[in-house]
Each structure stands twice: as structure tokens, then as C-alpha cells.
């Protein structure tokens, strides 16, 4: 970089200033789609050492940014063009909001002087993002950039994480400042950063919690994405093993403690939640995924102790006791207090025996189904083969990405999670189409891990073009597509429903039978496999897992296997 001389100050443009501010704020990865007016911004960021992953569609890039925020605990950054680019990016921003993941979307917008006159890609982007953000700002001048960048990043990660938005009009992107002015602006903004201070949990509340837990006859600890983002795995292990209390992870909480742990009660989920008298819920909302904490799934007398960083969540659920704070810190205090006066349920405790027996029964029943080699494939046979291949990899175990109806439901029960933050799925919103974006985020966030996606063909189709992105960036991602020819499994209509002028059209649930998804990735130089038998699948997994190169394994599934719409059938 040229140095500033007395006669001729070096000017830097807004694009470079944004990149510098992002870099100072610790951002080293960005996801997005370039075009007018943000192409130079992406190039400047790359020149400063920020890795920019260029996608085909902002929707997938946005899903990637949201998942990157979850996996790393630092906001994932999405860059989009104006108008439609911003609208496509809302998918990622809304997904971050729904899942409570830290993310920042930065969009270019039309020239300020032309706004309201029908400018190219004109949109009131601040209004468009409003339902999905914790905070948004539109800069009017280049000098506002450093402060705006730090503010959106800090807001996204503070308290309950979520999405924030920064709007930069095209005319601002073309403004310049001198290098010395830029440095001063960056220093001032950095020095005035107001980082969130998380309050310590109230000691009296900890004492109350311990007293409730001690009196419990059938306690259970439930943990979710909030515990994962807090990186509370060591504290949860300590708590569980010290007290002997069985645990139940939410779908993405899986892996904080290994699924194979002797106190894991996932395989006895109904018994555990139906019969527990005290539930310590750490970083998980009592929303639809946990049946709202209500009967008939939960006992009407269950006492909830909720640990959450968000006071509003405690107010909403009105638990028996709320412990407001960061999950890791709250559990540290809880563990310390328990240590002074220890207790442990022990293996012979009737509650532990009930759960252990139920787990054994259910695992045996499931294994007796899984062991069968059925051809044409149902969901269970290939899932067992994939499970065994993943287990065979040992540590570091791969990050598993899962979406679909049956594919995700079956995968959640069969695939084994051994390490924290190694499962990404449709999440709080049940979002379909997250697959390839999540794969790319996972590969970028954890370069030492393989990424294995297990997807329904419908889920895969939402973002299938991003297989080119996998190949372009040489990411170690193996995408396994359960291909049963459509949503749920192709045409399952009763004959009396097939009437009317368009009765000869394919069913709304149908795709082209036998679609050659494996050929798609070969168009870009990736590796494709078509498999329909256990031996073919095993061979494809062995080869692709050891190659650690982008691959798609197209698994032919019997279109009549599986339930109509997974475990949500009653709603369809
Ligand atoms: P899951 O889907 O796994 O059940 P949810 O997304 O429903 O999890 O809930 C996550 C909860 O964790 C949210 O209520 C959020 O406020 C909370 N949370 C986020 N970060 C933290 C943290 N560091 N410590 C404690 N709770 C957190």
C-alpha cells in the first residue's frame, strides 16, 4: 500500500474501508453473490485476507452465513447486491433469527439520489429486513462505515444471537476518504465499541435450583443449540456425570455429550420427558420441538428450570425457576455449588434403571430393523450403512448435514453424534433448502472435518446448483441424496384425487423418476455415484470418504418406503 505523502494524500474508497473494518472486527470469512454495486467490496475483502465464498444464489449463501455463525460463535457475514439480492438474502437472515444464530447481512442499495424514482434494483431494504433483524443501519456517508460495521457485528452476537443488517448505498460505496482519516475512523469506532457484558447468574437462584434438583425423584437435563453455541459441553458433562442425571439433547444439541453415553436417554425420549418431575433445560426453547413443555408429552406437574441468555424467553415460558445467563457460566456456578455438597443418583436408582432398560429395549428393536439389507432400499438400510461408515472415520468425526422429511427423521434416530456442533439440520423453522449452504459453511468453518450431507431429493433440489461451489472451492463434502422420486416419495394420491383438466400432469409431489443427481456434479468435475445396493453404497462411501473431495452419491430408494410426511404427518 502506498504511503501518504504531504502533497498528495492516499485515498481509499468505501469498499476498502468496509473490508478493513470487517477485518478489524475479526471477520475472516464471507459468503455471498457479487454484482452491482458490491463486486469491488468482495475483491477488496479478499485482498485483505478475508476468504470470500461466492455462491450462485443468495439464499444458499445466507443459509451458509447463518450456520457459520452457529458453528464458530462469531457472526457469519453475507454480502448481497441490491433489491432482489437483498430479498433472496432474507432467507438466510430469517433463518438466523429463527434459530438464534449470529449473522450479519451487508447489501448494496441504489443511489440515494435516485431512490423513489424507480432506480435499478430499488427497494426500501431497511423496511424489508425489519421483521428478521435485531438491529439495522443504512449509512449515508463513507465516514459512518467503521462504526456501522462494528455495531452490526457486536449486536448480532450479543445476548440471544440473531441477524443484523448493514445497508450501503451505491453512491456511498464510491466515496473516498484519506488513509489517515480512515485509520482514525477505524480507531475511534473500535475504541467506542460497547461489548456486551453478560451478568453473573444470581447466587440465590443457583441455591434454589440445587434445592429443587436435590428433591427431584426423576430429574432430566435437556440441552440445545444455545448450550452448543455457548460451548458448554465440558460443563454439561461435569454436571451429568457428577449428578448421574440422564440427559436428552435436542436435534442439534446432539453430540454435546456422545449419543453413546450411558446416561443418554434419546432412545427413551417419550419416557424421559413424559415421566421426569424436574427438567433442567439449558439453551433450548420450550417450543414445538419440545412440545411446548406441556401435557400430554410432558407431565402436568413437571418443574422446569430454564437456563437461557434471554430474559424474554424466561418471561414467556414462566418456568418454576429461570437462570438467566450464558449456559457455560451458569453451569460452571451450578457445578461449583454441587461440588461442595455432592450427590449422585447412581446406576441402581429406579429412574436410571427405567431409562436404561427402555433405551436397551428400543435400541434392540431399532437394530433388528436396521440389520436387514433390504433392496430396493428403504430408509433404514442405507442409513445404517452410512452410520457405520461415519463411525468408522473416528475422530474428528464429520459434520453431518441433514434435511428432508423421512430422511431427516430417520437420520436423527440412526446417525450417531459423538462431538459437539457436528449436526446441522432444518432447525427451529424446519427450513428446507439449507443443505448445500450448510455443507459449505461447515467445510469452511472446520477444515479438518469431512462434511457428510444426508438429504432427501426434494431438499437437495433447493440448492443443488451449489455443488459447483463445492467443486470450485475443493471442499471435502460428500452429499448423499435419498432419491425416492419426489416430496415424501412421488405420487401417492388416491385414484379418486386424480381428476380434472390437469390430471395427466405429474403429481405436485413428483419429480422425474430416477433423476441422475450424481451426473450434476460431474458436469463440474466432481465425483458422482449411483447406488442401489448395500455393496454399491459401501464402496461409494469408502472411496468418497477417503478422497475427501466433492462428491454426490445418488441413492435409489423405494418410492413407497417411509411415512407420507415424516413425523409431521398429522399436520399435512
Ligand atoms: P433447540 O432448537 O436446540 O431446542 P433453540 O434454538 O430452541 O434450541 O433455543 C436456543 C436457546 O438458547 C434460545 O432461547 C437462546 O436465547 C438461548 N441461548 C443462546 N445463546 C445462549 C447462551 N450463550 N447461553 C444460554 N442460552 C443461550
Structure in words:
- By secondary structure, this protein is an alpha/beta fold.
- The chain has three domains: 11-191, Rossmann fold; 203-357, TPP-binding domain (Rossmann fold, 3-Layer(aba) Sandwich), CATH 3.40.50; 372-571, 3-Layer(aba) Sandwich (Rossmann fold).
- The chain has 22 helices and 19 strands.
- A six-stranded parallel β-sheet has the order 3-2-4-5-7-6, with helices on both faces. Strands 15-14-16-17-19-18 form a six-stranded parallel β-sheet, with helices on both faces.
- Strand 12 (303-308), helix 13 (311-317) and strand 13 form a beta-alpha-beta unit.
- Helix 9 (203-215) crosses helix 14 (327-340) and helix 11 (233-243) runs parallel beside helix 14.
- The longest helix has 21 residues, at 350-370.
- The mean pLDDT is 95.
- Residues 99-100, 160-161, 224-226, 229-230, 250, 252-253, 283-285, 287, 289, 308-310, 313, 326-327, 428 line the site of adenosine-5'-diphosphate.
- Adenosine-5'-diphosphate binds at residues 99-100, 160-161, 224-226, 229-230, 250, 252-253, 283-285, 287, 289, 308-310, 313, 326-327, 428.
Give the SSE layout:
Elements: E1 11-13, H1 14-24, E2 29-32, H2 39-47, E3 51-54, H3 58-72, E4 76-80, H4 84-99, E5 103-109, H5 125-129, E6 135-138, H6 145-157, E7 163-169, H7 170-173, E8 176-178, H8 179-191, H9 203-215, E9 219-223, H10 225-229, H11 233-243, E10 247-249, H12 269-275, E11 278-282, E12 303-308, H13 311-317, E13 321-324, H14 327-340, H15 350-370, H16 380-393, E14 399-403, H17 406-414, E15 423-424, H18 435-445, E16 451-456, H19 457-462, H20 467-472, E17 477-483, H21 517-522, E18 527-531, H22 534-547, E19 551-556
Parallel strand pairs: 2-3, 2-4, 4-5, 5-7, 6-7, 9-10, 9-11, 11-12, 12-13, 14-15, 14-16, 16-17, 17-19, 18-19
Antiparallel strand pairs: 1-8
This protein binds adenosine-5'-diphosphate.
